[in-house]
Write a structure and sequence with these properties.
The complex is a heterodimer.
Chain A lengths: L1 H32 L15 E5 L1 H4 L18 H4 L5 E5 L8 E5 L8 E5 L5 E3 L1 H4 L10 E9 L8 E8 L2 E6 L3 E4 L10 E9 L8 E6 L29 E6 L5 E3 L1 H4 L6 E8 L8 E7 L4 E5 L5 E3 L1 H4 L12 E3 L8 E4 L3 E2 L3 E2 L3 E8 L5 E5 L1 H4 L7 E7 L8 E6 L5 E5 L1 H8 L3 H4 L11 E2 L7 E5 L5 E3 L1 H4 L6 E8 L8 E7 L4 E7 L4 E8 L11 E6 L2 E6 L8 E2 L4 E6 L6 E5 L5 E5 L5 E6 L5
Parallel strand pairs in A: 2-36, 26-27, 33-40
Antiparallel strand pairs in A: 1-32, 2-3, 3-4, 4-5, 6-7, 7-8, 7-10, 8-9, 10-11, 11-12, 12-13, 14-15, 15-16, 16-17, 18-19, 19-22, 20-21, 22-23, 24-25, 25-28, 28-29, 30-31, 31-32, 33-37, 34-35, 34-38, 38-39
Chain B lengths: L26 H17 L5 H23 L6 H13 E2 L4 H16 L1 E2 L2 E2 L3 H12 L5 E2 L8 H17 L3 H22 L3 H5 L5 H10 L10 H20 L5 H24 L2
Antiparallel strand pairs in B: 1-4, 2-3
The chains are: A mainly beta, B mainly alpha.
Chain lengths: 600, 275
C-alpha cells in the first residue's frame, strides 16, 4: 500500500511538472518569437533615430522586374526567378555625393544609375552613360553589380554579373561607361549569384571573384533538361562554379581559380572578402544556399585553403543568403552575419552570427554562433543584411530584408515546398517533380528587421517603432550617407517591387565620423583597408569591402557613430599594402578624405 | 521510441536470433547510435554535439530521477537513451532549450499519461509533437536528406529492417511503408502533385527514425499482430488526410492520435475481458 501511495503521489507531482513544462515551452517560444512585436503607429525617436521612406520625394521611382525562363519552369517560376534586385553604392562621378546603381532582371528591362545631385534629389543617368540596356536573353539578365577601380585611374568601374555573360564597364571620368567585353577575359557565361572585388595577391590591383548559383551548363531560357535543381536541400554541390580572376594590370583578367584553390560548385548567394585571419591578405567567406558556408583562407596570396569546417562556420548546412562583417562588441573582432530561413511551423534554421573566438594554432579563430543569444536568429526568409550604426550610439546595428515570394496573401506553398525539399536527390533535383506553386506565396509579405544593438550583448527588432513597415520581397540592402549628414540611410531593393530609400533622421546630439580612403600603393579603391577608431574607451574596427550583404554594396566610405563623445582619440588605418597610418584626434562630425601615405 | 525501462521485455526474436551474439535490448540503441554517428561523421548533420548531448543527458537523468522517486529503483536507461537521442536528432532549433524540453517532456509523459498501468503515447512521439505544436516559431523537425548518396540510405533501411525483424516488429514497419506508398498515390491523384513529390518525404531520414523506432515501440503498440498492422494502416490513412490538409508534421500528429486511441481501445477491451 505504501508503494502504491508513493507512486500516486509521485504521479500527481509529475502531472503538475508536465503541465508546467508545456506552459513553459509555449511561453519561451512566444518570447523568442516576440522580439519583433514592438508595434508603432507613427515612427518615434525613442531609440535615437527614425527611418522615413522617401524614394518618391528623392526622385527615385524604380521597380524591379523579374525574368521569365524556359516554360518548363512555369509551374515554379516565381521561386526560380526570385533574385536579381540589387543595389550598389559608389560616388561614380567623384563629386563627393554617394550615387547608386540598381538592377532589374526582366528581359528588356533597364537598370538605373541614380546620380546624387547633392540637393536631396537623384536623377537616373544610366541611359546616357551606357548602363541601362543590359538585360537581354542573348547576354542574360542582371543579378547584381559591384563597383571597383580595377584600373586605378581614380574612377569607379562597374562589374555587372548576370545569369549570362558578366560584363565589366570601364568608367571614363564619370561621363560614360564602356563595356570592356571579351578583351577583359571574363568567362563567357556564369549563372552568377554573387561577385566581389578584392586584391588577393596585394599587388595593388583589384582582382575579381565571381560565384555561380545555377549549374553552369543551364541556359535558363532554353533548358536541355529539367534536372537543374539542387540535388539536396542542405548538401548540394551541383551549383555553378567559382571564378577567381587575377587582374594582370593590362586590362585583362586570367582565371586562377584552380591553382589558387577556390574551386567549388556550391549554390553561392553571397560573398564578402576581408582579412579574417589577420595576416594581411584578404580571405573569402561564401554564404551558400543548400549547404554549408565556405571560408577560403588566403595563404600569403599564393593559394587559398577552405577552413569552414575547422573554424566552425562551415559545419552546419543551412540556406545561406547573406554575408556581412561587423565588430558587434567593439573589440576589434569582425563577426560574420549570415542569414538563413526561418518560417514558424515549417523550418527554423535560424540566422548565424559568427563571433570569432581566440585564435588557435595556425592563426585561425574558432567561431561561435551567437545569433540566438544576441536575438537576431529569427528574421523570416531572410536575405540581405548590413551592419551599420543607424542611431550613432557607437554600436553596430543590423538592417535586414526578408520575404521570398509574395503572391496570394492567405495561401502558402510551404507544405509542398517542405515535401519536395526532403526528397532524395533523384526527386528534388528535377524541376518536373516540384509541385506547382499555383499563385501561392512562399514566406511572402514579411517585414524587414531593424535589429538595434544595446551596445552590450543583445539586439532587438525596432523596425515598426522607427518607421519600417513595408512587406515587399526584400533582397539587397545597402547603407550610405546620401546627404553627407553623418547618418546612414538605407536602400532596399525588392524583388518585383520598388526600390525603397529610407532617410535616416538621427538625434543631432549624437556625434559621428567618416573616412573615405584612397589607396596609392594599395588599390585605389582601398578595398581591404582595415580601420580602427578609438574613442571614449571604445574601439571599433571596420573594413572597406566591395560586395557586402546580398547583391549589394555599401558606400565605401566608413561611418562610425560616436554617441555623446565629442572627441576621437585615435584612428589606425591598415592599408592593403601593409602600411599603417595613425591619425590622432581627428575632428568629429566630419567626413575625412584620407590618401595612403608614401613609404612605411 | 523507447517507452520505458521495461523495453527489455521486447518480444523474442524469430528463429535466427541465437545466431546474433548481441542481446535484443541493445539492438535499437546500437542502431540509432550508428545512424547518428554515421550521419554526423559523413555529412555533419549536427550543428554541435551539445544539442544532442543535452537531449540524451536530459532523458537519462530524468528517467533515473523519476524512476528512483516513483519506483524506488534505478531503471535501466536504455529506453531513455533512445528517447533522448531520437529527440536530439528529430528536433531542429537554433536554441538549446527545446532539446532539453523535448527529452524532459518525453520521459515525463511516461510517468503521467498512463491508464490502467499502460502508456498511451510513445514518449518521443508525445515530446516531439508537443514541441512542434507549442513552439512553432522556434522548433521544427528534421526535414532534410543526409547527403545525396543512395548507399547510406540503403544501409540504414537494411539495418533497420534486420533489427526490427530481429525484435519481431518488421511487419509493423513494412505495413506502414506499403500503406504510405499506397496513400501517396491517392494524394497524387487528388492533388495533381507529381507522385514522386508525394512520396519524397519517406526517402528522408526523419521517416527512417519514425518507421524503425517510433511506430514499433513495444510498449505503445497494441498486442495482436493483425491489430498492430491495422493501427499503422490507420496512422498512414490519417496522415494522408492531414497531408491533404497540408499539415507539415502529419506523421507525428497522426501517430499521436491514432496510436493513443488504439491503446485506449485495447486497454478498455482488456478491462472488459477481465470483468
Amino acid at each position: 500500500m505504501a508503494v502504491d501511495r508513493r507512486q500516486q503521489v509521485a504521479r500527481a507531482a509529475w502531472t503538475v511538472v508536465l503541465a508546467a513544462s508545456l506552459v513553459a515551452v509555449r511561453t519561451i517560444n512566444e518570447r523568442a518569437a516576440g522580439s519583433a512585436s514592438l508595434d508603432g503607429g507613427a515612427p518615434d525617436a525613442r531609440f535615437g533615430f527614425t527611418l522615413q521612406e522617401s524614394a518618391a520625394a528623392l526622385g527615385v521611382d524604380f521597380v524591379h522586374q523579374a525574368p521569365t525562363f524556359d516554360s518548363r519552369l512555369d509551374h515554379i517560376m516565381p521561386q526560380v526567378a526570385a533574385m536579381g534586385a540589387a543595389v550598389a553604392v559608389a560616388d561614380f562621378d567623384r563629386d563627393g555625393w554617394q550615387d547608386f546603381y540598381v538592377t532589374s532582371s526582366g528581359e528588356g528591362s533597364r537598370n538605373r544609375l541614380y546620380r546624387n545631385q547633392g540637393n536631396d534629389t537623384f536623377v537616373d543617368v544610366a541611359d546616357e552613360v551606357g548602363l541601362a540596356d543590359v538585360n537581354r536573353e542573348d547576354v542574360g539578365v542582371s543579378m547584381g553589380a559591384v563597383w571597383g577601380d580595377y584600373d586605378n585611374d581614380g574612377w569607379e568601374d562597374l562589374l555587372l554579373y548576370r545569369y549570362g555573360r558578366p560584363e565589366l564597364f570601364r568608367n571614363e571620368a564619370g561621363r560614360r561607361f564602356v563595356p570592356v567585353g571579351e578583351a577583359a577575359g571574363l568567362p563567357a557565361h556564369v549563372n552568377a549569384g554573387t561577385a566581389t572585388w578584392l586584391d588577393y595577391d596585394l599587388d595593388g590591383r583589384l582582382d575579381l571573384f565571381i560565384a555561380g548559383y545555377w549549374p553552369d551548363s543551364a541556359d535558363l531560357w532554353r533548358l536541355d533538361t529539367t534536372r537543374i535543381m539542387p540535388e539536396s536541400f542542405e548538401y548540394a554541390r551541383n551549383g555553378g562554379r567559382n571564378y577567381l580572376l587575377r587582374n594582370r594590370g593590362d586590362g585583362r583578367f586570367e582565371d586562377v581559380t584552380d591553382p589558387m584553390g577556390v574551386a567549388s560548385n556550391r549554390w553561392t548567394l553571397a560573398v564578402v572578402a576581408a582579412d579574417i585571419s589577420d595576416d594581411g591578405y584578404p580571405d573569402l567567406f561564401l554564404a551558400n544556399d543548400y549547404g554549408v558556408s565556405e571560408l577560403f583562407l588566403n595563404r600569403d596570396g599564393t593559394g587559398f585553403e577552405e577552413v569552414g569546417e575547422r573554424t566552425g562556420v562551415g559545419r552546419s548546412p543551412k540556406s545561406g543568403m547573406n554575408a556581412a562583417l561587423g565588430d558587434v562588441f567593439n573589440d576589434g573582432r569582425l563577426a560574420i552575419y549570415k542569414t538563413n530561413i526561418s518560417e514558424p511551423g515549417q523550418l527554423v534554421q535560424g540566422n548565424d552570427l559568427w563571433i570569432p573566438g581566440d585564435r588557435a594554432g595556425g592563426g585561425l579563430p574558432e567561431y561561435q554562433n551567437l545569433a540566438s543569444s544576441m536575438g537576431v536568429d529569427l528574421g523570416g526568409w531572410s536575405w540581405g543584411a548590413q551592419f551599420g550604426d543607424l542611431n550613432n550610439d557607437g554600436a553596430l546595428d543590423i538592417y535586414q530584408a526578408n520575404g521570398y515570394v509574395s503572391s496570394e496573401e492567405l495561401s502558402s506553398y510551404w507544405y509542398d515546398f517542405g515535401v519536395i525539399a526532403v526528397g532524395h536527390s533523384a526527386i528534388i533535383a528535377d524541376a518536373a517533380n516540384w509541385p506547382a506553386m499555383k499563385g501561392r506565396s512562399l514566406s511572402g509579405h514579411q517585414r524587414s528587421r531593424v535589429w538595434l544593438s544595446d551596445g552590450v550583448s543583445r539586439l532587438s527588432d525596432v523596425a515598426a517603432v522607427v518607421g519600417v513597415h513595408d512587406t515587399f520581397d526584400g533582397r539587397a540592402v545597402a547603407l550610405a550617407d546620401l546627404g553627407n549628414r553623418g547618418a546612414l540611410d538605407v536602400l532596399v531593393a525588392n524583388q518585383r517591387g520598388p526600390l525603397l530609400v529610407y532617410r535616416n533622421h538621427v538625434d543631432p546630439a549624437r556625434h559621428w565620423i567618416q573616412f573615405e580612403l584612397e589607396g596609392t600603393a594599395s588599390n585605389r579603391s582601398a578595398i581591404g583597408a582595415h580601420v580602427v577608431v578609438e574613442w571614449d574607451g571604445r574601439r571599433q574596427a571596420q573594413v572597406v569591402t566591395a560586395a557586402s550583404g546580398f547583391s549589394a554594396q555599401n558606400q565605401r566610405r566608413l561611418h562610425y557613430g560616436l554617441g555623446d563623445a565629442a572627441d576621437v582619440e585615435r584612428v589606425v588605418i591598415r592599408w592593403p599594402s601593409g602600411r599603417e597610418q595613425t591619425i590622432e584626434h581627428p575632428a568629429v562630425d566630419t567626413i575625412h578624405r584620407v590618401s595612403e601615405p608614401d613609404g612605411q | 521510441m523507447g517507452s520505458d525501462a521495461k523495453v527489455l521485455s521486447t518480444p523474442a526474436a524469430p528463429g535466427g536470433a541465437r545466431r546474433f551474439p548481441i542481446h535484443n535490448r541493445f539492438l535499437p540503441p546500437i542502431l540509432i547510435t550508428s545512424i547518428l554517428l554515421s550521419a554526423h561523421l559523413s555529412f555533419g548533420i549536427l550543428e554541435g554535439w551539445e544539442r544532442t548531448g543535452l537531449s540524451i543527458a536530459t532523458a537519462i537523468a530524468t528517467e533515473l530521477v523519476l524512476g528512483a522517486i516513483t519506483y524506488g529503483a534505478w531503471l535501466n536507461p536504455a529506453s531513455a537513451y533512445i528517447s533522448g537521442i531520437s529527440a536530439g536528432i528529430l528536433i531542429r532549433s537554433p536554441y538549446l532549450w527545446p532539446y532539453f524540453f523535448a527529452s524532459f517532456i518525453s520521459i515525463l509523459s511516461k510517468y503521467v499519461l498512463r491508464w490502467r498501468g499502460r502508456h498511451l503515447w510513445n514518449p518521443t512521439n508525445f515530446g516531439v509533437s508537443a514541441m512542434l505544436f507549442l513552439a512553432p516559431a522556434t522548433v521544427s523537425v528534421l526535414s532534410i536528406q543526409w547527403g545525396n548518396a543512395v548507399a547510406p540510405m540503403a544501409v540504414i533501411w537494411l539495418l533497420g529492417a534486420v533489427i526490427t525483424w530481429r525484435v519481431g516488429r518488421l511487419h509493423i514497419s513494412a505495413t506502414y511503408v506499403v500503406s504510405f506508398l499506397a496513400f501517396s498515390v491517392v494524394r497524387s491523384v487528388i492533388t495533381g502533385t507529381p507522385w514522386l513529390a508525394t512520396v519524397a518525404p519517406i526517402t528522408g531520414p526523419m521517416y527512417q527514425l519514425f518507421i524503425f523506432f517510433m511506430i514499433t515501440d513495444p510498449r505503445t503498440t497494441v498486442r495482436p499482430v493483425w491489430a498492430q498492422c491495422l493501427v499503422v494502416v490507420l496512422v498512414a490513412f490519417v496522415e494522408m488526410l492531414m497531408r491533404l490538409a497540408e499539415v507539415v508534421y502529419a506523421p507525428f500528429y497522426a501517430l499521436f492520435w491514432v496510436g493513443a486511441a488504439a491503446m485506449v481501445v485495447e486497454i478498455w477491451l482488456d478491462s472488459r475481458r477481465r470483468g
